[in-house]
Amino acid sequence: MSKRHFVVAITGASGSVYGLRVVEELLKCGARVSVLITAAGFTVLREECGLSWGGTDTEVQEPLSGWLGYEGDGLRYYASDDLFAPIASGSSAPDAMIVVPCSMGTLSRISCGNAGNLLERAADVMLKEVRPLVLVPRETPFNAIHLEHMLKLSRLGVRIVPAMPGFYHKPQSLEDLVDFVVGKVLDSVQVEHNLFKRWGAEA
């Protein structure tokens, strides 16, 4: 049985740690992961996580693999302008795609069917092939345009999972809050995890 294949895209919205943790957890469960990072995403990774990545595919993939502590062949980084990447074609569509965090600019372009880069094209592939697409907006407050785009996408079957951590599991650290959101994302693509205590579960 082949490994499930996920695309994880990190944009310039605040909360890049969510994207990194999603990649980490997917690799732990044995999935194959293709990673996309926008230009603004690299800037936020540097500002929020102290990760100064950039350059060619290899120059990004090596530190990414090192940060994740991953040595297998299930992780692949693609540049945003690489429209020849397999994930740009419906004949090679992944099992699911997660944009985490998802900027409002990226969300609006996906909603409008814009396919100007690999991230947008990959999202378009998910829509046309009716595959799971999960967007994790990290913005507040939402304006009417944001909400209209999210409603449009939701009606198309896209899962909108805002980065809104819960508190009923009694988080004790920042990591607990991050893991709650990451767990909700994994729930949306049917990936088992133990990142937070579920409501009503025994201690």
UniProtKB/TrEMBL annotation:
Q: Which keywords annotate this record?
A: Flavoprotein, FMN, Prenyltransferase, Transferase
The reactions it catalyses are:
dimethylallyl phosphate + FMNH2 = prenylated FMNH2 + phosphate
The name on file for this protein is: Flavin prenyltransferase UbiX
Q: Can you provide one Gene Ontology molecular function annotated for this UniProt record?
A: carboxy-lyase activity
In the Enzyme Commission scheme, what number(s) does this protein have?
2.5.1.129
Residues that, per the record, bind dimethylallyl phosphate: 168, 184
> What role does this protein play?
Flavin prenyltransferase that catalyzes the synthesis of the prenylated FMN cofactor (prenyl-FMN) for 4-hydroxy-3-polyprenylbenzoic acid decarboxylase UbiD. The prenyltransferase is metal-independent and links a dimethylallyl moiety from dimethylallyl monophosphate (DMAP) to the flavin N5 and C6 atoms of FMN.
Keyword Metal-binding carried by entry: no
**The protein's enzyme class:** transferase
Q: Does the keyword Flavoprotein apply?
A: yes
Q: Which InterPro entries match?
A: Flavin_trans-like, Flavoprotein, UbiX-like
Q: PANTHER family recorded for this chain? A: FLAVIN PRENYLTRANSFERASE, FLAVIN PRENYLTRANSFERASE PAD1, MITOCHONDRIAL
Q: Where does FMN bind?
A: 12-14, 38, 103-106, 138
The entry's family comment says: Belongs to the UbiX/PAD1 family.
Q: Which residues form the Flavoprotein domain?
A: 5-188
Highest taxon above the source species: Bacteria
